[in-house]
Amino acid sequence: MSFNVSRWRPAPLAPRTTGWGLWLAVMILTLIGAIVSILGAAGARAVLDRRADWDGSITIAAMERGLETADAAAARAEELLRRQTGVASVEVRDPRRDDAVIAGLMGATTSGVEAPRFIDVRPVPGARLSQADLAAPLAAQGLAVRFDDHRRWDGPVERTALAAGGGWAALTVAAVALLAGCVLNVAGHAVRRVRKRMSLMISLGATRGMLAAQFPGPLCASAVVGALIGSVLAAGLALWAAELLFRSQAAAIGFDRWDLLAAAPWPPAAALIGWLFARLGAAGALKRVL
Amino acid sequence: MWAYARLPILAPMSRKAESSVDESTAPLPKVVTFENVVLGTAEHPGAAPLSFTVEQGGLCLLAGPARAGKSEALARIALECGGGGRVLLFGRDTSRLKAREVPLLRRRIGRIFQDLRLDDDLNAFDNVALAVRAIGRPAQDSRHQIAEVLAWLGLAAQMGKRPKRLSNLDRRRLAVARAVINRPTLIIADEPTGELTGKAAAALLRPLIDMHHVGTTVLIASRRADLLVDAGATVIALAPSPAPDVAAGAAA
Asked: What is the predicted ipTM?
């Protein structure tokens, strides 16, 4: 077959393929990184939800006593609490929601069991309202109540959120660093594979910068393909795990499918890391071998 | 040559002289100047200090036996190594060049390496295109020029073949094509004919002589002092002796 000048395209100066190594390494690292991101997003959302729910509020559990049912006790307590100074709002929770939570956790029906009724009390911001201030009028009216002051959970929740955030950041940084290391290594290897060609190009007047610019393309493409597969796998795994673990507790814990979007930045991030470190790795390797 | 007289690389090269100066009497610019250049290493010194000048448009033969320092002399010109003495390239002292100037000067040189340094992973066309790409020109814009040069050198039917599938003569022609494609100011060739003799060697040297005729400076290193005897080349004889024998007209 004769050579067609019009259809000729310059041959790539860098190796056409980078092999399975980079592709596989990026896929595994992205899989880990994306799972960590999804967990981080879900965790952050859970913390925010809890913070919003609990921030500065007090839950009071009204129990049955004697002939008075928990529902009646809750209604009376609500009436008393509304009149209390320093209380911004009082709300008796929907019993069906509480029953669903208890049923989910216990794994059995609560029918026939007299469950307490929960009342959410939100103090006026800045008001120095203590548990004792609320307990006194209720006790005086003979109501059987238990207090759960959410403010005592603020510290542990914040510390847990901080630790989870730190862990997420550390794992993400580690994944990115490993990814960058892989790309640097593969870029160096690619340069060594075409060392003679690079040496010739330098002799003919090429600059190292011109030559280093030839390497990011194929490496970046490999990284993006690996990252895309890793991210999709991570999203699939997260969905599967959520379905398996949280099925019975969906109402209490929940798994928002929007959390899966946390895996989305990984392919463009892998492309950016691939391009940048391929360029740096190629420039460094060219300096060493030429 | 006549069939290819309109090739861009065979257009006469203009002299860089002031317009007010009469070109017939003005001294030709010096392309390469060696001043007391010591070839060889401290442990294995080669010839005695070497001095010569190659003027623009000149055709010179650096002749000498093996290990006389021919390849090293060409490497000094191509800015690949340093050493004793002073080498001026296009009037610039090569020891005082900044790193970023080196590639720019190399782009003005067309090289034929002793071992040819053809890339066996690329076809003949891409091998020539490497020289175009090395100077930062888009190779696709030069593809018709590459095709013309390959055809001029008798490689029209070999463009898609890899060097290892070419004959020895065609491989050497391919190296010539890569050296001339950018229309360099200076061509340096290290044993371009190799073991070729007679008509084959003459056929290989013809394009280089044609380039010389249109104003390109050509410097060829060879063991054979009679290689360019018919072309009127200036012969610079190198020998592992205390003093090189510099032919008339070329000595500094």
From this structure: 0.87
SS3 at position A58: strand
CB-based contact, A125 to chain B, within 8 Å: no
Which domain, by its residues, includes B36?
29-108+185-252
Q: For the whole model, what pTM was predicted?
A: 0.75
CA B72 to chain centre: 14
Q: Tell me, yes or no, whether B50 and B165 share the same domain.
A: no
Q: Which amino acid is at B235?
A: V
Residue A177 CA: distances (Å) to CA of A128, A184, A274, A280: 49, 10, 11, 14
Residues A197, B125: C-beta atoms closer than 8 Å: no
- Summarised one tens digit per residue, pLDDT across range A204-239 is 999 999 999 999 998 898 899 999 999 999 999 988
What DSSP line would sit under A18-30, residue for residue?
-HHHHHHHHHHHH
> Which residue on chain A is closest to B162 by alpha carbon?
A3
Domain boundaries, chain A: 19-51+155-289, 64-143
Same domain, B209 and B190: yes
